[in-house]
Amino acid sequence: MTELWTLPEDQVSELARRMGGLGLLSAEERARHGRLRTLGARRRFLGGRLLCRRALSAATGLPPDTWRFVRTRYGRPELEGDHGGLRFNVSHTDGLIACVVTRGRACGVDVERAPFAPGTARLLRDRFDAAQRAALDAAPDRPAALTELWVLTEAYLKGLGTGLAYGVRGLRFTPCGPGRFTVYDGRRPAPGSRWHAHLLRPGPAHLLAVAVPATAPTPAPHPNDPLHPTAHRLPPHPADSAPPPHLFPPPAARATGPIRPHPYDAPSHTGPGHRPPPR
Length: 279
Hints:
The chain has about 280 residues and is α+β, with helices and mostly antiparallel strands. Helix content is about 30%, strand content about 25%.
């Protein structure tokens, strides 16, 4: 099971109204929410915590107030207690919140506004190794290539559970189908090769990646949720499978009916036609 949920930031207040808002959070979560300095940061934090509860409840049938979380030494939220191998990961950026839920295997998700601002792009580029930077410089659209490489990298590192504490160097993402990549991790070649990543464009302003171990079974379909969060199934990973759907329908489609899948038509600058850096 791999289910990906997205929530537009402008719909957090409506979801909060329906789910109970801050009252659904633990005391520790409410304290963290209160320490955030900006309204946007508080809204995205609340949206992420509500969305993951909504997704976990949809996967299990348990009520949203079931879920309590602990943080690992790297700061990653994990479920408190055993829930049959259920795992999740959340990411949010200005305008969009995403949550991936799996059972029996790790997962990571990252979503970013695309492209990065020039100052941010320079800082992020400098974190990569020489081979990664050479590949970025050779890309036909450097800003797009950097955004793609960054979201793929963050999704994989979040799937490992370490986040950026592991560092971003030595990672390669080799295309194996539209929007799909195998992972090469120079510091852990055998485990890294068992991961795949999906690159998706949920809308014109955002880019999203999901990373999961490649040994996973084909994800099961999930019905479209009638509330504002939108649930999607990830497609099978093999290169000859159908391309992934767009994850984020236009506002009219969200309001009136189920999502219609469309071919992944956003060009991937780290995908087919782009030579990966040498290993």
